[in-house]
Automatic annotation (TrEMBL):
Coiled-coil stretches noted in the UniProt entry, renumbered to this chain: none
Boundaries of every ATPase BadF/BadG/BcrA/BcrD type domain copy: 24-316
Protein name, as recorded: BadF/BadG/BcrA/BcrD ATPase family protein
Highest taxon above the source species: Bacteria
Pfam family, one: BcrAD_BadFG
PANTHER family with a match to the protein in the record: N-ACETYL-D-GLUCOSAMINE KINASE
């Protein structure tokens, strides 16, 4: 009879922690601010939400929205029980400004929290929301675009993310700007503007009297109206035209197809600055442009499969990813796969 004992199936480690230990995760986005508080078992015990908390795009209200979400999440919980906090900030670079950071510190301390918050970039949070793996690559393509190389859950290199003026190639802003530029070129040449061009005109000039303007001024007046209207608005609003491009793509508009294809190529080029064909680890894709329902996202997944190794995953709940990272800061043994599944589902 063999005396060998069967090898048990691996399990998540059992960690003894104070029953009162809590962690806080945050996600400060351009459209919303979300806070989650969880216990050391990964059970959510508090949630809070408010309007946009990106200090770059909402400098006047970001800190106040941050504070509102924190107070809502804490509820009746003792803030002193929060032992670690990880907060992803899409506009995190603005927090290096002493005045901006002072506003955020004021609402943090005003909530009674005594732990020092760890503000990290949205790339790290997006990666953690998509996979519990420590190493891999992340690409965010929404209003802007940026890629990052992650090692041991930390960002070690980035590509793009330079903003609408200097980069963000293949992003929603890029799609919107290129759609408008293609329309203006057609108007310059006196060519038909096509389905995409017509949709862009309606989006930018919703109250335009098409027949009257065409009879009186022709294309020159339309071109001038478009240029004047767009230049009078915040540039980032061009990203709203990305939806117009996608709609025209679904209608088989030739120009929209070319723009979608080029956006996917540019995003692939951004990733290639960080990752070689032999590198391993998963790809995590985040943002509306890189989403599975986006034509850019579908083409992007195809090109990644063709040129790189590694599983392609979609980012999930960003605030859940931040909370899971906070558990790992509290104790690395708590950053388990089961806790990850519980927090990002």
């Amino acid at each position: 009879m063999s005396l060998e004992r069967p090898v048990p199936e691996p399990r998540d480690p059992v960690v003894l922690m104070p029953a009162t230990a809590l962690v806080l995760g945050g996600d400060l986005g351009g459209t919303s601010t979300r806070i989650v508080i969880a216990d050391h078992d990964g059970n959510v015990v508090g949630r809070g939400a408010a309007a946009g908390g990106n200090p770059t795009s909402h400098p006047a209200s970001a800190a106040a929205n941050f504070g509102q979400a924190i107070h809502q999440a804490l509820g009746d919980l003792d803030p002193a029980l929060v032992r670690t906090a990880v907060i992803g900030a899409a506009g995190g670079s603005a927090l290096s400004n002493p005045g901006v950071r002072a506003e955020f510190d004021a609402v943090w301390n005003g909530a009674g929290l005594i732990v020092e918050p760890d503000f990290i970039g949205d790339l790290e949070v997006a990666f953690a929301s998509g996979t519990p793996e420590p190493d891999g690559t992340v690409l965010i393509a929404g209003t802007g675009s940026a890629a990052g190389l992650v090692r041991d859950h930390r960002l070690v290199r980035t590509a793009d993310g330079h903003g609408w003026l200097l980069g963000d190639d293949g992003s929603g802003f890029w799609l919107g700007r290129e759609a408008l530029r293609s329309l203006l070129r057609a108007l310059d040449l006196g060519e038909p503007i096509g389905a995409l061009g017509e949709a862009v005109v309606k989006a930018v000039l919703p109250n335009r009297d098409e027949q009257a303007n065409a009879e009186r001024e022709g294309y020159n007046r339309l071109r001038d109206d478009l240029v004047r209207t767009v230049n009078s608005r915040p540039p980032v609003l061009l990203a709203e035209l990305a939806r117009t491009v996608v709609a025209a793509y679904e209608q088989n508009d030739k120009t929209a197809h070319a723009l979608v294809k080029r956006a996917a190529e540019l995003l692939t080029e951004t990733v290639s600055r960080l990752r070689t064909t032999s590198d391993m680890g998963p790809f995590v894709l985040a943002g509306s442009v890189a989403g599975e329902s986006s034509p850019v996202g579908r083409l992007l997944r195809q090109t990644i499969h063709e040129h790189f190794n590694g599983e392609v995953l979609t980012a999930r709940d960003g605030v859940g990813g931040a909370t899971w990272l906070a558990l790992g800061v509290l104790d690395p043994a708590l950053a388990t796969r089961s806790n990850h599944a519980r927090l990002v589902s």
